[in-house]
Amino acid sequence: MGILYDDDVVIIRQSAKEGDPSVITVNCPDKTGLGCDLCRIILFFGLSIVRGDVSTDGKWCYLVFWVVGKSTTRWGLLKKRLVEACPSCSSASGLSYYCAESQPPRPPDVFLLKLSCHDRKGLLHDVTSVLCELELAIKKVKVSTTPDGSVIDLFFITDTRELLHTNKRKEDTCDHLKAVMGNTMLSCEIEMVGPEITACSAECSFLPAAITENVLPWVIPDELPSSLTSTSVSVNMDNSLSPGHTLVQIVCQDHKGLLYDIMRTLKDYNIQISYGRFSTNHRRACDIDLFLTQTDGKKIVDPNKQKALSSRLEMELVRPLRVATVSRGPDTELLVANPVELSGKGRPLVFHDITLSLKMLHTCIFSAEIRRRMIGDREFEVYRVLLDEGEGLAVPRSKIEEQVWKMLMGWKQ
Length: 413
Description:
The protein is α+β, with helices and mostly antiparallel strands and 413 residues long. 26% of the residues lie in helices and 33% in strands. It has three domains: 1-90, ACT domain (Alpha-Beta Plaits), CATH 3.30.70.260; 110-194 and 320-409, 2-Layer Sandwich (Alpha-Beta Plaits); 229-318, ACT domain (Alpha-Beta Plaits, 2-Layer Sandwich), CATH 3.30.70.260. Helix 4 runs antiparallel to helix 9 (350-360), helix 7 (258-268) runs antiparallel to helix 8 (303-318) and helix 9 crosses helix 10 (397-409). The longest helix has 16 residues, at 303-318. It is globular and about 70 Å long. Residues 90-102 and 214-224 have low confidence and may be disordered. One of its GO terms (molecular function) is amino acid binding.
């Protein structure tokens, strides 16, 4: 086999009619977790996967995703990011179909973006939207409002393009923020900081039971409001239908990032997909069939492993994120938590969706913080948002929880 060029690795066929799905085809050497990485990129670009087919012989894989999304999707940039996630392979390297995964890349440089500005409704969401558009990933944030009404925003970010160390990229970032914030922006500074600033903390005493409960045994709390969970999730495992694979059949309600949640769970368990098919109907019901093997190429026959994987998949589909409101003295704090992949990657666009929900509810943010915490034996990203109740909270807590949950799940408001 000759050299595989980028144009052959990822092919995107955009839909001719608005509302119809576009088709993304990926043809490249395989690696464990590739499907997860691709689905995460597709989620970051705001696209929903409505159908998917995956096949691999363990060395070479072929994936097709039917996606729908925004008219503003930057398809060229999406293709570039998908190609970067795929292993490269050429005959000149002496390898045929399979290329062993290279050494893990070094952690990205972390930068501190310090913004000083006058406060206004929706400001934090507007800033977050600009950072997402510029492919600047928020690792940690500290937002506070001063007594005079001005805001100090500290964003600890990494740059997907790896250019933020240059003056041009820094100036471009501040210019984009200025264009959105206008005269409300007082200053914009960007400097490199150490990676330890975003390290995970074991402290989680401030988290309520709605966030931390039952994390360790991976069971679904019965007392959760139905509005804060998905419904009708069925996970069945069968070893009788294939001589070499375990068949996992999943029936559930669709949500934003559904295929990503399944893929990241399998990646964390080192489970490989030999063949898979995913589809949704007009009622947003999903059917998923996955033919799986362990890393040794064998079926999953251990009952304990079957039960652990099945329970984990069910939990991730019923409750991929956790949302709660709590009292902080006289004030109300919104808490959102999502699990972090074992690779260290968090879920895309969570802070973007939180701030958009609060903007749509006309609810102001007094302060906000993102940190990573150990809950049980697992790492979570925890978002703490203190709501501004200067004139009393006009929106009931239950409505805030429900609206934020629906936004995160991609369900109609």
